[in-house]
Amino acid sequence: MMQLDAEKQMRRRKRKNTIFHILFLSSTLFGIVALALLLIQILVDGLGWLNWDFLTNNASRKAEKSGIKAAIFGTLWMMSITAPLSFIIGVSTAIYLEEYAKNNWFNRFIQTNIANLAGVPSIVYGLLGLTIFVRVFGFGKSVLAGSLTMTLLILPIIIVASQEAIKAIPGSQRNASFALGANRWQTILRVVLPSALPGILTGSILSFSRAVGETAPLIVVGAVAYITTLPNSVFDKFTVMPIQIYTWANLPQEEFHNVASAGIIVLLLMLLTMNAVAIFLRNKYQKKN
Amino acid sequence: MARMKQSKNAKELNSFMQKKKGIYSWDRMMPIILATIAGISVLTTIGIVVILITESAGFFQAVSITEFLFGTQWTPLFADPKFGVLPLIMGTFMITLVASIVALPIGFGSAIYLSEYAPRKVRNFIKPILEILAGIPTIVYGFFALTFITPIIKMVIPQTDLFNALSAGIVVGIMIIPMISSLSEDAMNAVPSSLRNAAYAMGSTKLEVALKVVVPASFSGIIASFVLGLSRAIGETMIVTLAAGALPNMDFDFLKSIQTMTAYIVTTSQGDTAYGSVEYRTIYAVGITLFVITLIMNILAGYISRKFREEYE
Amino acid sequence: MSIVQIKDLDLYYGDFHALRNVSMNINEKSITAFIGPSGCGKSTLLRTLNRMNDMIDSVKISGAVSINDTNIYNPTVNVELLRKEIGMVFQQPNPFPKSIFENVAYGPKIHGIRNKKQLDEIVETSLRGAALWDEVKDDLKKSAYGLSGGQQQRLCIARALAINPKILLMDEPTSALDPISTLKIEELIQELKGDYTIIIVTHNMQQAARVSDQTAFFLNGEVIEFSDTSKLFSNPNEKKTEDYITGRFG
């Protein structure tokens, strides 16, 4: 009798395990299904509108004449400032914190500060950019103001990713260099950075793609949606792909939703390429170690 | 080599008393240069705090803090403007509520699956997909809410508004699933496998190990991931701007148009409110409210997960 | 003739008194072994000789460490040039993730040698000096990580030789190696003795007995006994030394 009970109980426990296994699996699949639906819907609506004209036309009041050229160029202009600037500032900060900073209250404060900055909503960076870059510095609603705002926004992500990459270099490497009479800067330049670079690049590219996809802070800074000329200098007004998509999505006409879908396809392709490069770098790097 | 050594004279022997030369001097300048650059992130924080305080100070000279915090009407652009922020907070709260109903159980369940159940191959397949999901711009999610989720809701409940809190909330939830899942999974992975083995050795099923050993041991990490996810939902802007509408109200009706704090800031800064006017300054007053709420949540999450780290290291 | 003179050396890690009143003279072109149980201070003393302890914030030092009668803790000493005079080999082989050539050329490049021909020469001499040349001469461009553990450790020795030091510090250089690689390194140490002053920390008493001329026995941060190796192992003066070498503790 007792053995029968135990067997019954065991079967019950196993069944419960199976039910929850299925539940947990389906919650994981939920994300995948959502992603698939999102992509399918956008491809179905947008693919028909995606052609060479769409890539080379400027914004228009007519859906069939609308293009994303100005927005693509705006994004490229912005990233040509944001990417190098945030990379230099971010990697420098990470090197300082990991290789030079002593464990005192000031450096702990910088570290906490960076962690908190990473959690500040992006729209707040928009307010910062609007006040400081657009008004106080007088850059106006320009490429420069937008780029600097984006630089500050992605800075914490680059810093943290670079710190992780630098931390992963074992101390024995540094000791070998010091014992040969290298000073700290030589050691950083010749031992630490070459080994940490793939990790730093991966993190940086992922944060660049965050900047390419960001919308809200740039709206606040004043990147305008309806633009028919390309920027000629960093002081010109500009728009970016996400804002262009936002504008199309906001229009009541159904055709513009399809135009928006086509815009999203272009945006996602650009991001996918960037992420693929980042993942490629990371895998190459992981194999080496 | 021996010959080389023997030829060294006494002066050379103490060569380490020489003055530092050019190739060594960068070493003294670099820490100063790098520390200066590191100061930019501190300046950013100071900048955010200072501009939010000074710009909203102008607002609070015109509007009392009591009216702002406790007023139940938000109509800054009307002829008779009302500046009660509660409707915007209500909008943000409704979005966050729907998002957490969607994201917390699903994120939690998928974390358990990935950490405890999934075979290596499946895991290696699913993790990158969740990363892609996390990398999709919010504007795309917003578009998805407006053109896919909303029509479905309207099919089920026809009286739903085109812009509504439910659709935006669901999609905000989908957006934060990868974040909650991956942070919770990290916390679960940090549980030493010796604890799991002890439970398996006593004949526990996977479910029993997951719920009775792993989850309790990583509980604070999981909670921290929830708090961070919600903080992300509160700060989310484009989904709610596109799909939730622009009608601040206190009705608590998920099928109606609402407005969140973030959506208000975006919508207003797009318009042509005069620089320096009270209406213009509302975006800073709302901004500082948003900043304080998310800051408190992030500090809370950091505090919870630090406590958690001490248990294992 | 002594090349290293240590006088009344005390060292603290924060509150921990790691070296107590150490005084000793180390002979030029000889092999000196430091032995003793873990945590006795032998590695710490080794690291004070090239000031690697400077990296640790909480270290406080009093007393004098002199090389050729110049105190290396004198504030005007250029630490980088000091370390150029003193090569170091670590417990775990720690080649850089670079080619074999770049590993050996690293030190000379740091100290300003740019000439390719000169670098080629230094790399060959150093690899020959570390008895590795014949094994790697065709693979100089390949990654150092492809070498076996023993080869990696000899590469690290070659890397240290490349800066043309007078003193070679070895911190348990064979503790991570198999017996055959260990034997090769021990033979190499004997060969290097003609040109370098070698100080080796080891937890392996037989190794100290096999390779060294003089041996210092450490216990709790103190030098208990320092004498010729043959004497220390056959007829120690101190009871504690005898207890340790006969395996009663440690």
TrEMBL record, chain A:
Which residue numbers delimit the ABC transmembrane type-1 domain?
72-278
Primary localization class, coarse: membrane
Recorded superkingdom: Bacteria
Keyword Isomerase: yes or no? Answer: no
Query: What CDD domains does its record include?
Result: TM_PBP2
Q: Which UniProt keywords apply?
A: Cell membrane, Membrane, Transmembrane, Transmembrane helix, Transport
Compartments in which it is found: Cell membrane
Q: Which SUPFAM superfamilies match?
A: MetI-like (SSF161098)
Q: Which family does it belong to?
A: Belongs to the binding-protein-dependent transport system permease family. CysTW subfamily.
Task: Identify this protein by name.
Answer: Phosphate transport system permease protein PstA
What is the species of this protein?
Chengkuizengella axinellae
What would be the name of the gene that encodes this protein? pstA
TrEMBL record, chain C:
Q: Name one GO molecular function term.
A: ATP binding
Checking Pfam families in the record gives: ABC_tran (PF00005)
Which InterPro entries did the record assign? AAA+_ATPase (IPR003593), ABC_transporter-like_ATP-bd (IPR003439), ABC_transporter-like_CS (IPR017871), P-loop_NTPase (IPR027417), PstB-like (IPR005670)
NCBIfam families under this entry?
Answer: 3a0107s01c2
Q: Which PANTHER family does the entry mention? A: ABC TRANSPORTER I FAMILY MEMBER 17
UniProt protein name: Phosphate ABC transporter ATP-binding protein PstB
User: What residue ranges carry the coiled-coil annotation?
Assistant: none
* Swiss-Prot/TrEMBL keywords: ATP-binding, Nucleotide-binding, Transport
Q: Which CDD domains match?
A: ABC_PstB_phosphate_transporter (cd03260)
Which organism encodes this protein?
A: Chengkuizengella axinellae
* Limits of the ABC transporter domain: 4-245
